[in-house]
Amino acid sequence: MNILLIHQYFLEENDPGGSRWNEFTRVWSEQGHTVTVLGGMMHYNGKEKKSEYKGKLFVKKQQGTVTVWRCHVSEAYNKHFLGRLWGYFSFMFSSFYAGLFKAKGRFDVVIVTSPPLFVGVSGYLVSRFRRVPFVFEVRDLWPESAIDTGVLTNKLIIKLAYWVEAFIYKRAALINVLTPAFYKTLKEKKGIPERKLIQISNAADFSLSEKLLNDFDREAFRNEHELDGRFVITYVGAHGVANCLEQLLDAGEVLKDTNVLFLLIGQGMEKDRLKKLAEERKITNVRFLDSVPKAEVFRYILASEMGASVLKKVDTFKTVYSNKTFDYMSCRKPILMAIDGVSRELVEAAGAGTYVEPEHTEEYSRVVRMYLADPTRLVREGESGYRFAKENFDREVLAKKYLEYIRPLPGSPKER
After folding, report:
1. Nearest-CA neighbor of 251 among 280, 209, 292, 283?
2. Model confidence, pTM
3. CA–CA separation, 77 vs 69, rounded Å?
4. All residues at 6 or more sequence positions from 149 whose CB lies less than 8 Å from its CB, including other chains
5. Exposure string (b/e) for 146-170, b if CB count within 10 Å is 16 or more?
6. What residues contact residue 135 under an 8 Å CB cut-off, 6+ apart?
7. Which residues contact 231 (CB under 8 A, 6 or more apart)?
8. Phi, psi at residue 367, to the nearest 5°?
9. Which residues contact residue 358 at a Cβ distance below 8 angstroms, ignoring those fewer than 6 apart?
10. pLDDT digits over 29-73, tens only?
């Protein structure tokens, strides 16, 4: 097959963040399929473009056997709400143009992954002009998540977002959702016919974790990074409003009498405020690190006792799987799960950690002290989560399953 993927946040090589689609496209190209990606010029936590993109609208790159067209995204993206909105629209326009005039050849399918929601418009129009099926993926319920976290408040924009959502769902040949809760919501609340719905979830990257597990010198790494003697709980990911990482500062404060260290790795609009707040409150057992390449992220996870998955306490987030949860599982680390709903159910079904009520400081204290008192749980739950993810959430397996749904679409080639 010849596949066109539109993904604003498709990672560059060695970029930090969720690499699910980098792995999927790698697997597909290794199977002999041709993959072209239209990706943005801004990392989702970035503050400015790389120098190679300055003053340019489009740049063609090669990531392994995958061709990537980097498309313009406004540098106002991570500065304020209107900048974020313009970042979405600027990519919608640039990816539409690239889909028509930059990406060469005949494609069999156009796949769009969201958020942002508006890129679905670009994907639909490209699919219409190229006369191929359009597949839309829902990684987050949008606009609900933006509304619940207070990021989206303008009634006109909210109305527009719901209209765009309904427009895209109606015209997609298939809609992939990442969790059972998304599936249920689209089917029961949004009236999407079940024949259009599939579920290919987030997944674990075992190719990287298993390579590191074989030769990683944990003690040397901990010594180098001043982690010796600490009970390290690592959070990896965005530092934004939706993540509500202030709750980890609160947890650090009530655990200051222990050897617990919260290690927060990543970038985002809230990071500077959080660092200032930690300094003002003299919280010394929360350490902030800038984003690091994926392999380095896995080393930090392997050097930790636990991984933390954290989001704001709102109902919409009860429907999501957190990407970082699967990274922790693949590294045999138990999870401090501060997300209710399907994420909590996942960890409990896997025996891979413990749920802590989001934004409930006393519960953080109780749960973490439970692990401090019984460190054997760390190994037991880490191994259990690893086995569960290996059996159910291996990226290579799910990448191949994705193709099984796409091949039979009208206009797509059947399996050769």
Report:
1. 283
2. 0.81
3. 19
4. 241, 242, 312, 314
5. bbbbebbeeeeeeeebbebbeebbe
6. 109, 110, 111, 112, 172, 173, 174, 175, 176, 406, 409
7. 258, 259, 260, 261, 305, 368, 371, 372
8. -70, -45
9. 244, 247, 310, 311, 312, 313, 338, 339, 340
10. 999 999 999 999 998 777 788 899 999 999 999 999 999 999 999
Tokens 């219409």 map to which residue?
A: 128
Measuring CA to CA, how many Å separate 184 from each of 144, 188, 241, 390, 393? 15, 6, 26, 25, 20
| Both tokens assigned to 191 | 């009236």
Question: Is 194:187 a contact under the CB 8 Å cutoff?
Answer: yes
Cβ atoms within 10 Å, residue 358? 20
| Distance of alpha carbon 308 from alpha carbon 316, whole angstroms | 19
Question: Rounded distance, CA 356 to CA 338, Å?
Answer: 5
What contacts 412, CB < 8 A, 6 or more positions away? 1, 108, 109, 132, 133, 406
Query: Residue 227 is encoded by which pair of tokens?
Result: 């982690």
9: amino acid identity, one letter: Y
- Tens-place pLDDT, residues 161-191: 899 999 999 999 999 999 999 999 999 999 9
Provide the 8-state DSSP code for 110: E
What does the alpha-carbon distance between residue 156 and residue 158 come to, in Å, rounded to a whole number? 5
For residue 135, give the DSSP letter.
E
Q: How many residues does the chain have?
A: 416
The whole-angstrom separation of Cα 266 and Cα 288 is 8
Q: What is the mean pLDDT of residues 276-288?
A: 97
